[in-house]
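Researcher: Here's the sequence for the chain we discussed earlier.
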Amino acid sequence: MTQDCFDTLDATHFLSHYWQKKPLLIPNGVAAQALTVSPDALAGLALEEGVDSRIVSSQDGIWQQSRGPFDATHFQVPGPWTLLVQGVDRLIPEVAALRAYVGFLPTWRFDDIMVSFATDGGSVGPHYDRYDVFLVQGKGSRRWKLGPTCDNATPTITHGELSLLADFPVQEEYLLTTGDVLYVPPHVAHWGTAEGESMTYSIGFRAPRIADLVARLADQTLDSVDSELLLTDAVAITPSQSAGEIRPQDFENVRGAVFNTLEALDSENWFGELLSEQGEPVSPILHRTELVAIAPCAKVFWRRDINGCHVFANGAVSPPFETAIIPTLIALCGGEAVAVVQPRADSLLLDFLDEAGALYDPMDID
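Model: Thanks. This is the structure I predict for it:
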């Protein structure tokens, strides 16, 4: 199925029928003028320290990957090659603006926007990812082949740092030109190849690992539970008939005690704290001028509860704020700049965000 326009996508229909279920082609989903990064600008980013960049090349069936920062000589690669730069949305505001096309998805699910440039025939090989991605075609064309759903048992071949699929039965094939979008769910095999010089913007949504969620909830509970509290079984215990046996009712009593403790001591703040820890704090603004905004590298989320509103910024958790701050929070988390002069509740919010290293002055060109 195709959709006429990305920014008029029926979000409810998409989430019900495609999200984490099956791919979707969205022709002409993004206006060409929104895709402004040039190959030279992308190469310039790859020269910088602290920018996550890599080059993937292939020749005679041999795949290689090297990591930046690069210099000009690294772009003289024999055979087809692809330059990939992660987190370009944190470096170029025009790229960050592409997030608006997927604004119907929860902000905390967003990871970053990777931009790639490929020479004719350039590719990163047949593979699958564990996250959702919207592949937005910029300059040129790229042919995408889609295969089956994969898992840890799917055969792969290792080429240095690259793990590529050993077999790739093609199930769908699309040629994307400027402005076209292809949504690929997690674990779906895909293989893109440039036809001529090609630019692609990959809008990625990465979910938290279950292991991290369990560990954080357990850590929070252990911090709160009385270390001397013992298991009770006054209700569950019955006469034992077999020496040494752990009976089903014993195990169910233990399971219930653990789950009840997790639920009773759950502050519900650990989740937002965990998510926001992925942010990179910036220096607090010493002299706020007229406007402030969330720094591109910061992570800010919030949730309502019976006490008001908790805010999470770069791993810091706020005390409860009045719900009156929610419109300002929505604006900030949506990428807008807000005025420094605010009612008292919003000023307290800005103070918290500033102390957490989550604000910057968008008018500061330095």
